[in-house]
Amino acid sequence: MAGLAASSLTPESFDLMTQFAGRKAALMTMDLLSEESKLRYRSFFPCGDMLIGLRYHETNPGRTAFKAGRALKIIDGKIVSEARKDVQFVQPLVPHHSEHVYGFWHINEAQEMSLNLKLDDNRRLTVLVEGFPERGRKDRFAWYCLSCVTPLYMAEVETGRVGLGGYYSVQEDAFEVFNGDEKVRTCRSCGTVHPVAYSIFPWKDSREEKEARQCW
Ligand SMILES: [Zn+2]
After folding, report:
1. What is the predicted pLDDT for the residue at 26?
2. Is residue 39 part of a domain?
3. 163 assigned to some structural domain
4. How remote is the CA of residue 83 from the centroid of ligand 1, in Å?
5. pTM (2 decimals)?
6. 42-73 pLDDT tens trace
7. Which pLDDT score, from 0 to 100, does residue 24 have?
8. What DSSP assignment string belongs to 168-187?
9. 147 CA distance to ligand 1 centroid (A)?
10. Which residues fall within 8 angstroms of residue 177, CB to CB, at 6 or more apart?
11. Residue 61: per-residue pLDDT
């Protein structure tokens, strides 16, 4: 019996397990309520193979929080409001938009997960989790008519190749086109004019973008 027990672990496994136990990986923790976390994760922050983002929602938004709004998706040609649940997913290629947080429809080739935490009666926090963009993965910034869901404009970026810096620079270029020309924002089908786009950085808003953030 003693011989059997000794042979149940191969020398290779023994060596591997010894290596694993001796790894010097950093402990990785997040304190959701610290000011440092609020700043570090306000965009998307790489944590190993993941991107993490923190979105604070408050009835009275301050510098680091957004006004509470609906989570919207476009499904079967309609704009649908999804009830906030503890854990939510966005499947790949489903246009989604978070009211007052970012003013475009994000179309991701990868899946996203969000964890919704209630901090108190007036404050909620969404923890966004997605895979770190692989080479070849694209993000799209899109706008559809809010009345009849006719496509208006879209820009795409290969985030896996150009990184987050490239992601934001393509986004800014798209905003310039979309916000700079009312013709681009006018629905060819029903004539509705779309409000301007805005980013997840409220302190960068122009007057027009600030107004748009309040309304969609
Ligand atoms: Zn329309």
Report:
1. 65
2. yes
3. yes
4. 25
5. 0.88
6. 999 998 889 999 999 988 777 778 888 999 99
7. 77
8. HHHHHHHHHHHHH-TTTTB-
9. 5
10. 153, 155, 184
11. 77
Distance 19 CA to ligand 1 centre (A): 60
How far does residue 191's CA lie from ligand 1's centre (Å)? 6
Alpha helix stretches (DSSP H) within the chain: 2-7, 11-21, 35-40, 159-180, 207-215
The count of domains in the chain is 1
Which domain covers residue 145, as residue numbers?
30-215
CA 185 to ligand 1 centroid distance, Å: 10
Asked if residue 191 belongs to a domain, the reply is yes
Question: What distance in angstroms lies between residue 21's CA and the mean position of ligand 1's atoms?
Answer: 60
Least Cα distance to 102 among 44, 28, 25 occurs for 44
| Surrounding residues of ion ligand 1, Cβ less than 5 A | 145, 147-148, 150, 187, 189-190, 192
Return the pLDDT at 3.
52
Calculate how far, in angstroms, residue 142's C-alpha sits from the geometric centre of ligand 1. Answer: 14
Distance in Å, CA 145 to ligand 1 centroid:
5
What CATH number does the domain containing 99 carry? Answer: 2.60.120
Could you list the mean pLDDT of each consecutive 10-residue stretch along the chain, which spans 216 residues?
67 94 79 91 90 90 82 97 94 96 96 94 93 93 98 96 95 98 98 97 94 95
| Alpha-carbon gap, residue 110 to 90, rounded angstroms | 9
- CA of 166 relative to ligand 1 center, distance in Å: 31
For residue 135, tell me if it sits in a domain. Answer: yes
